[in-house]
Amino acid sequence: MAFADFAPSAGWAASVWPDAAPAYDLRPGQPDPTIFPHAAWMRSGRQVLAKAPPDLHRRGDAGGRPELRAALAAYLGRARGVLTSPDQIVITTGYSQSLGLLARVLADSGATAIIMEDPGLPFHREIVSRAGLRIIPLPVDVLGARTDLLTSARFAGAAAVHVTPAHQYPTGATLHPDRRRALISWAAATGGLVIEDDYDGEFRYDRQPVGAVQGMAPASVAYGGTASKALSPALRLGWMALPEHLLPAISDAKRHADTHTASLSQLVLADLIESQIYDRHIRSARMHYRRRRDLLLGRLHALAPQVQVNGVAAGLHALVKLPADGPAEGEVVDRALARGLALQPLAGHWYRSGEHQQGLIVGYSTPPEQVWPEALEALCAVLHGLSIDHERGRPMSSANPQRLDEAVGEARARYAQRRPRSRALQDKAQGFLPGGNTRSVLYHQPFPLRVDSGWDAILRDVDGHEYVDLLGEYSAGLYGHSHPVIVKAMTEALAEGISRGAHTSIEVDLAEAVCARFGSIERVRFTNSGTEANLLAITAARAFTGRDCIVVFGGGYHGSVLTFKGGRSPVNAPYDVLLADYNDAGGARSLIEDQYAKIAGVLVEPMLGSGGCIPADPAFLAALREATKQSGALLIFDEVMTSRTGAGGLQGRLGITPDLTTLGKYIGGGSSFGAFGGRADVMELFDPARPDALPHAGTFNNNVLSMAAGYAGLTRVYPPQVAEQHTARGDKLRDDLTAVFRSAGAPFTVTGVGTLLNIHPTASAVRSPADLADAEPRLLELLFLDLLELGYYIAPRGYLALSLAVTSAQLDGFLQAVAAALAARAALIGSG
User: Fold this and answer.
1) What count of Cα atoms within 13 Å lies in the side-chain half-sphere of residue 479?
2) Contact call for residues 229 and 203 (beta carbons, < 8 A)
3) Residue 665: active-site member
4) Does 566 have pLDDT greater than 90?
5) Is the pTM here over 0.70, yes or no?
6) Which of 32, 461, 594, 665 is catalytic?
7) Rounded to whole angstroms, how far apart are CA atoms 388 and 305?
């Protein structure tokens, strides 16, 4: 879909397009013309003409060239998860024509009303209205269209729902998996039609694109796409993938419309798709627009921090929300025009009357590459003026960047001044260790804390400062620093011999305890770390299935060589992986169904740990369980961190049983530990008595310290009932901490499950790593440094993992310390 696909009304055009051509055009709807693949298009054109079919110059089938329909059927299935055949595809001149044909056919069939997103594209509403259909507005929020409301009485009688699920226009939201299911449920219950505008469907930047809704119910969804964004709207190339029952009526309407895309253009596009030049161009364009979006967000963050950019990292536009107490969007547009900059206001996109969010829809694809930096600076100049006006009225809710930098600098200087011995050790360490560090997560500015000793839940640094330890060794220190049962178990094990080079009875005891504790584990093997456990679980899945590929998720962390927090890491093990979006059930399901023949397993954390303690939606994990069962792939739960959350880990709380589970952290009692286990038929691959056994070596796999401490801890210190009580304690702390932030009006959110929590420097809800795009890391650094001075130790990234040694009085003191830190920074963060 592109603006050029349809001629909007004069009133709408006057509100958006100024009379004079602007110097910089940041209105959405057009791709960057400088990246059109001219050479490839001309080369394919020559090839097509050289082998031109006899009917090339005839008008041909109104449904489009069969070559393009066949190419699109394969491409859409591969790239968008669309389930269709060439006979079900109709070629159009763009999405506007597709929508017009569908509206006309619905009206001719007796339909009187259609449900459309609000806000949405105004001339889409004009197209539908011209067909004689009444529009029922469907609200949109951060999770996309409110399809969960479709069963209410006000939507009764509607024949269809029109949605933009991949990247809602103009809000930028992606339709939540639960709402996708609600949409399909509505269609099944009412017999209604879902009209899917796959707006920006190919342009997702933080993960693989979300699959189309059509793949969930092909008989109920009319899918529409276009080459307008990927190539150019001037090509007049769009398409529909239709349910079979609509084909006769749509084909007839298309013949009467008598608007055909040139056969040559259709054949060229078919050739580009079949040669996969189109795929390569999409990947290149995706990188191009991602760089532009990242630059836009970075400059706005630096120069106009009071505006908020909404939506996921996708598409060719961004919705910039304006402050409620700032100038009206019309005034902002006028200011921009005075600088030669054309912007599109959010006004006019609302169907319902009343007060609405003020905002600008910024198209970062429109300016040619050579003028993009100048256009961006012009935009920032306009919005920076709003920042100055806004700051005159009250403290900014997002602190002025200069003030934040000054505050962080002062906090770092205070930290350094009070810790001369830590600084001296850092300087010495740099002579032997790269950066003075051998564990990256422990590093922070201006230099890391050096701890001298610890007991119970207390740490003392080398400068003599004491802290309540709320980090709990990143979840490995569940038992505190000196639990008598753990100390005794280790001492007795050492007294009986350290490295024995043989099997021992204690490893059998621990294995039995692990299998009894976690329902999915029928057989188990021990390793030295969670990293090793995950590597071996992947190996087991590949060997058992005979396939090579593993599905992982953005934001995931499965060890030092299996990290996907920012995509793929250069230190990752060289596995063939498919990267999917966390908590996107529909997208993951489509990916698994599309690539099932190569997928050996799906590796997922039931709660992103290092990625921010973001819990998985139960429906997301259930969808993975069902999809892997159907595909023959193995589902692997990484519970290295989350196995402490309840009696049987997070899988026990959720009632979802994976094929394999990985463990680590606290189960070693404070010593190095990892384990992987699961179905007996899979784990038997490691039986050394088998002639074809998979080898699994490791000098310290069954070291007596980890075995003894692990068994004592799991059976005596942290039995199931204690696990449940401790998890409830953590849930309460998360609620209490959230209340402190809300009471202070501070822009922080707390996520997690049980005793694993993460503080995020954003006021927005956090359901996926993409929701942290607007987070302000300097606010979090200030909180971390301020809490150190108040005697509380958390991770610099805001992570907490409560040990059993932390007392209720210490937690109360922590909440008071957070409140005191926020009060001290009230003027900076706008909470005063």
Assistant:
1) 26
2) yes
3) yes
4) no
5) no
6) 665
7) 11
